[in-house]
Amino acid sequence: MPSPSVENYLKAIFHLSQRQEGWVKTKQLAERLEVSLPSATNMMQSLAEAGLVDYRPYHGVTLTGTGRLEALRVVRVHRLLEEFLVRTLGLGWDEVHDEAELLEHAVSDKLAARMDAFLGYPQVDPHGDPIPTADGDLVRSEGPRLAELQPGQRFRVVRVFDQDPERLRNLASWGLGLEGEGVVVAARGDAERQVKMASDSAPRWLPEPSTRALQVELL
Predict the structure, then answer these.
(1) Quick one: three-class SS letters along 171-182?
(2) Is 195 exposed, middle or buried (0-12, 13-18, 19+ CB in 10 A)?
């Protein structure tokens, strides 16, 4: 298995590549992993020599086929751990990310397979993020963000693109956890939305960061 540092870089490249088109910049990696630019550059060169990335100075980096499979293996373990911690130990969705970050490097493929079977082969983790299969297949998550909805449209929350514990706790307390259902009551500006959740007694205005972080399906 690659070192934890290599796994962290591959996972970071994967996540950044999911959010944008084209090559991932070395500066983006350095900022995400909170390392110096020279350290990130040196690692890109090492990963390229190992055949895990295609690295072009001043242009960026992409995962090779081998690198993508390795990144997906780490993502799979991380998301299975989050689901396991919620279901078996009762941790909240605001608590599991950091714990999974610590544990993911110590979990073998065999243990990951056992967790997967124990959990009943879940398709998503507690945040609605799709869990890759052992073969590296990943179902792409589709659907609008809450910020795109207009007054009168009903929705169900299917994914949250946020790992900040305080914001996750707030969303849960407002009924905006996974499977939470509601209706958009009013819109303000490009992304602020007033929503009435089935579990909440009164409409609530949500700021742009929250509405853009929530992926929904229309009802």
Answers:
(1) HHHCCCCCCCEE
(2) buried
Tally Cβ neighbours within 10 Å of residue 161.
15
pTM of the model: 0.91
In a domain, 72, yes or no: no
**How many structural domains is the chain composed of?**
2
Alpha-helical runs (H) found in the chain = 4-18, 26-33, 37-49, 65-89, 96-103, 109-118, 165-173, 208-213
211: left (phi over 0), alpha (psi -120 to 50) or beta: alpha
Domain boundary among 63, 91, 109: 63
Average pLDDT over residues 64-81: 96
pLDDT at 2: 80
Q: What is the CATH number of the domain that holds 53?
A: 1.10.10.10
Q: How far apart are CA 124 and CA 216, in angstroms?
A: 14
